[in-house]
Amino acid sequence: MYRKDGTIISTEASVRAVRDAEGNILGLQGSTRDITNRKRTEDALRKSEKYFKEITDNSSDIVIITDQNGDVKYSSRSIERFTGYTPEELIGRSGFTFIHPKDSERAANEFAKTLLSVNSSIPNTFRIVHKNGSELYFEGLAKNLLNNPDVAGIVMNIHDISDRKRTELLLQVSEERYRTVVENASDMVYRTDENGYFTFTNSAVTRTIGYEADEIIGKHYKMLVRPDKFKEAITFFANQLIKNIFNTYYEYPIITKDGRELWVGQNMQLIKENDHVTGFQAVARDITDRKMAEEKLRESEEKYRWVVNNIVDVVSIMDMNLRFTYVSPSVLRVRGYTQEEAMTQTLEQMLPPKSLQLVLKLFEESMRLEESGKADPTVCYTLEATLYKKDGSLIWLENKLSFLRDETQKPVGIVIVSRDITDRKR
């Protein structure tokens, strides 16, 4: 109704009949009460409820209220977007009906914890079965408000984490596959922190050097490096760190648990997080046999190099284009040329025309035999010819020629051993 000043107020009226002694109605008696404030409160509450209903129904989260038995009393409309079920299909039914069978026992235990924890939020993660039969992962918080008369239930705020869970599962599978590969690798794989202390070793490390993982983890890698090589090794890896070189290769000797010496060839990578180096990861291989073979070869090469360098005869090696690839130092004594000078000479510069013809003819004939397949790979040709000395004079040389061959016995070079026979010829 309107007040005198024109404003509208809400009123509540009550009317009763007025009767005489015989019960006859004499008239009506009424009273009116101003309930404007109460109506405003009720209107505000209705608007508030609508406001929060719109929020919960359109939220990315789901709000569910159950009673103490787990039966659904309320569900926000948003649940239909995630599970396919409408609130009407859920209300009155046990919430455990929709939990995945493998998670139902754990969900029941979490619900029991919530019943015992008044006003405390209990986190939970579980799978539900979508209306179409697919599985979804949810995560949320449950709060016991059974003692709150305005709610009188267990309030659960949950949200869909299916995409995150699938990513985690794929990552877990990937990590397990990687771990299987690493653990069964024949190469040693290990990690250290940025200061060089071991944080991980695979089983190949134990097989190769004898130390169990718990004997190495937390120790500095210098415990394995041969002492005289440690300074060189730490300088190498410090340089990798300082210059931010992602991957390096280095060979160095290590000492095994039983005192043996092994050589390892190692690829070392930087481990980074947000462009900050947090450690190193290495893949190392035992190259002891190769190192021993290289050392024997080096000793052998040094021995034969000493023999060749000190032999009286001149030893030369030519490629198949008749260009020198090696001439022994004795050429200086025999012809007066240094090694470097002799290796730059052509046959035309070394030989007079008649000797040049003999050499070329021998080469052509031997190559025809090779091409025909009739050549004896063990044959050694002998040719006497004159050569120029550095002072322009001529000397006689007896030359023993044989082919260098590859694994298929194909000629790849020519070895010539030349002896000065000038005095004999005279």
What does this protein look like?
With 426 residues, the protein is α+β, with helices and mostly antiparallel strands. It has 14 helices and 17 strands. It has helices spanning 36-58, 79-83, 87-90, 101-116, 162-183, 203-209, 213-216, 227-242, 288-310, 331-335, 339-343, 347-350, 353-372, 422-425; strands at 11-19, 25-34, 62-66, 72-75, 121-129, 135-145, 153-160, 188-193, 198-201, 247-255, 261-273, 276-286, 314-318, 324-327, 381-388, 394-405, 411-420. The strands form four sheets. It has a five-stranded antiparallel β-sheet with strand order 4-3-7-6-5, sandwiched between helices. A five-stranded antiparallel β-sheet has the order 9-8-12-11-10, with helices on both faces. A hairpin with a 5-residue loop joins strand 13 (314-318) and strand 14 (324-327). The longest helix is centred in the first third of the chain and has 23 residues, at 36-58. It is rod-shaped, with a radius of gyration of 48 Å. The termini are far apart. The model has no long low-confidence stretch (mean pLDDT 83).
Which shape, going by the Cα principal axes? Answer: rod-shaped
The number of distinct helices, counting runs of at least 4 residues, comes to 14
Uncertain segments: none
Overall pLDDT metric: 83
Class by SSE composition? alpha+beta
Question: Level of helix content?
Answer: 25-40%
